[in-house]
Write a structure and sequence with these properties.
It is a single chain. By secondary structure, the protein is an alpha/beta fold. It has a single domain, classed as Rossmann fold, CATH 3.40.50.12710. The chain has 14 helices and 17 strands. Strands 2, 3, 4, 5, 10, 14, 15, 16 and 17 form a nine-stranded mixed β-sheet that branches. Strands 1, 6, 7, 8 and 9 form a five-stranded antiparallel β-sheet that branches. Helix 13 packs across helix 14. The longest helix has 17 residues. It is globular. It starts with a helix and ends with a strand.
Length: 366
């Protein structure tokens, strides 16, 4: 399929040379004229993927319940900044606030910030939240959020941040690039940039030839920035995404188009392009900035321990069989190991090394 962005990328490559994976992802997702998030409707059955908040109201409600409890444990009594990064269609925050409204003190102290660069998605979020008990202030980036204690929610945010990829060659670790093959089609190649030996992680020291090493500088930088603010002013951040908790080699770059996996070059600008999140790297960045990291849970464990089954039972009580079946299906999608339950992880960071149920242990990534 020829897309407007494909033609633009080909012209760019002919004019200036191959693109890094970072630059290719950035163009596909954020090109002002043809980027996926700037021009498409990605969410829901009519889009390309369905996020957990769209599966069921229970997801946002349980996150709200968790943050209410956490704010008491962390003693966030003074006014604080409630922040969502990449709010999607606003569904998560609408469900979150409905639960949070049960505790008036929380709502009186919360100032809602939605970090979203897309004007089109801002309109959708504003419409979803038009009757919410808190009115959002939109920010282009996290650094614009005012100082003060924080509660930060990031659901499927980090996976859309551009990554770098390196390939093990005879000469070392060369950066993977996107260029044009002999037929004039987009294809992967090897660039001249090399990863310095001092930057090579220990787990890649004995990699075989053609192994792929991914790094996530943008994600790690944002995690560090959030952690530094939490360390200074107090608070909590909750990162929920699909990914892995132990750093490893491998190619996780992928595209989704109409709810199916797609070739990353097939529909640039019309398909979602993401990579799995390295939670160990996120945790390390947060810890180095001074925050305390709570050992990650799978999304399934997190939601079940927060009362997913009990909430499902309450929602289904007295309802017709079809409604009850839909609620059971939603529980399966959110928590079953073979669906979202195991693939998605939940990481929490705080300014204090204290117990934060349902998280059991502090995590000290090397």
């Amino acid at each position: 399929m020829t897309t407007p962005l494909l033609a633009k990328l080909k012209k760019r490559i002919v004019a200036t040379g191959p693109l890094s994976v970072v630059d290719y992802m950035s163009a596909c997702l954020a090109d002002p004229d043809h980027g996926y998030y700037t021009t498409k409707e990605p969410f829901g059955e009519m889009g390309d993927f369905t996020t957990a908040p769209e599966v069921s109201q229970m997801f946002g409600e349980l996150l709200g319940a968790f943050c209410l409890q956490a704010s008491d444990i962390l003693q966030l009594g003074e006014p604080f900044q409630l922040v969502e990064l990449g709010p999607g269609g606003g569904t998560l925050m609408a469900d979150f606030l409905r639960m949070a409204a049960l505790q008036p003190g929380f709502m009186e102290n919360a100032q809602l910030n939605l970090v979203e660069m897309s004007p089109r998605l801002r309109e959708k979020q504003a419409d979803t939240l038009k009757h919410a008990p808190l009115a959002p202030t939109f920010r282009d980036m996290f650094s614009e959020v005012p100082d003060g204690p924080l509660i930060v929610i990031a659901n499927e945010f980090f996976d859309a941040l551009p990554i770098r990829q390196f390939i093990k060659t005879e000469l070392g670790w060369s950066e993977r690039m996107v260029g044009l093959n002999d037929e004039g089609n987009l294809s992967f190649g090897i660039g001249v940039a090399q990863l310095e030996q001092s930057a090579l992680p220990a787990y890649a020291a004995h990699a075989h030839r053609d192994a792929v090493l991914e790094t996530q500088p943008a994600a790690n930088a944002i995690a560090s920035q959030i952690a530094e603010r939490i360390t200074r002013f107090g608070g909590l951040a909750l990162f929920i995404d699909y990914g892995y908790t132990k750093s490893a080699l491998g190619d996780t770059l992928q595209a989704l188009y109409k709810h199916a996996y797609d070739d990353v070059f097939a529909h640039p600008g019309a398909a979602d392009i993401t990579a799995h999140v390295n939670f160990e790297a996120l945790a390390r960045s947060a810890a180095q900035a001074g925050a305390h990291v709570h050992a990650p849970l799978t999304q399934g464990d997190f939601l079940v321990k927060l009362g997913l089954l009990e909430r499902a039972g309450a929602l289904g009580y007295g309802k017709d069989p079809k409604t009850q079946e839909c609620i059971r299906d939603a529980v399966e999608r959110l928590a079953a190991p073979d669906q979202m339950g195991d693939l998605f992880k939940v990481l929490a960071i705080t300014h204090k090394p204290l117990a934060l149920p349902p998280f059991d242990l502090l995590w000290h990534p090397i």
